[in-house]
Write a structure and sequence with these properties.
Largest sheet: none
Order of helices and strands: HHHHHHHHHH
Number of helices: 10
Helix content: over 70%
Radius of gyration: 21 Å
Shape: globular
Distance between the termini: 58 Å
Number of strands: 0
Strand content: under 5%
Length: 269
């Protein structure tokens, strides 16, 4: 039942703590000693981090891209459950969420097994485009199989996108300010979650749901494809967010400052 599945997920989550601790200890043993640095004020550290983040336009654009990824993830996290519960039971929802979450686990295993040494911009572009396509399919129809498959592959795309962003940023930031810059990177990228949690429910309830009611404004157009009634406005919002992610991915490939990051910040030959 749902309770047993939740308990299993909790046990798996707890086990990841031991993996993290053992990995950290193993890496720490191999680190060479570093001379202590003079203490800096919080304001100075923030200033240095911001300067390192904004010195390269490509890095700043990638950080904003990370916010878009977290926004998309936040939209699905917020709206997936009410959309699914509009046409099926909580037991089915629990199983569905478990299957979907496995997508991220599988792709993380692939990334750990197959080293990627170049082509990070291409990896980022393709994975973001794929995530957008599968996100759009996720909200397309009230069909459990379609939602499960598209949700699985949506989450499977995210580790590839994160790897592309992570490698492109880290290889273009001075090691001396990595920590300060990444503190800001984490803060800015998480703003996507804040925005998604703040507005996705309001948009779904007051804008998109009325449009796809049986007598709604888009019932005879978009409603022919997505369906009308309970949960279809939520699905429409998820589709729109997915298409926005696709457009962003296509645009990314033509942005010169981001392409230059592949070459260490210099112009491509």
């Amino acid at each position: 039942d749902v309770y047993k599945r939740q308990r299993l997920l909790l046990i798996i989550d707890i086990c990841t703590f031991f993996v993290t601790v053992s990995t950290t200890l193993a890496v720490r043993k191999g680190l060479a000693g570093v001379a202590p640095q003079p203490k800096m004020s919080l304001l100075s550290e923030l200033r240095d981090g911001w300067a390192g983040l904004t010195a390269n336009k490509g890095i700043l654009l990638l950080v904003l891209m990370g916010s878009l990824i977290t926004f998309s993830l936040g939209v699905i996290q917020t709206l997936a459950s009410p959309m699914v519960l509009s046409f099926t039971s909580s037991a089915v929802l629990g199983t569905l969420m478990t299957v979907i979450a496995l997508g991220m686990l599988v792709s993380s295993f692939v990334l750990g097994s197959v080293p990627i040494k170049k082509g990070y911009v291409r990896l980022l572009t393709l994975s973001l485009f794929g995530a957008g396509v599968f996100m759009a399919f996720f909200g397309l129809r009230p069909n459990i199989v379609l939602i499960g498959v598209s949700g699985f592959f949506f989450f499977a795309m995210l580790p590839f996108a994160n790897t592309g962003i992570d490698c492109l940023i880290r290889t273009n930031i001075d090691n001396q300010i990595q920590g300060r810059v990444w503190g800001l990177v984490g803060l800015i990228s998480q703003l996507g979650y804040v925005a998604a949690y703040a507005i996705s429910g309001i948009l779904a309830d007051y804008v998109f749901t009325p449009l796809l009611l049986p007598d709604g404004l888009l019932a005879e157009s978009v409603g022919k494809l997505l369906g009308t009634g309970a949960g279809r406005g939520i699905g429409f919002l998820i589709v729109v967010a997915g298409l926005l992610l696709c457009v962003t991915a296509v645009s990314l490939a033509g942005i010169k400052p981001i392409r230059r990051l592949e070459c260490g910040g210099v112009d491509e030959p």
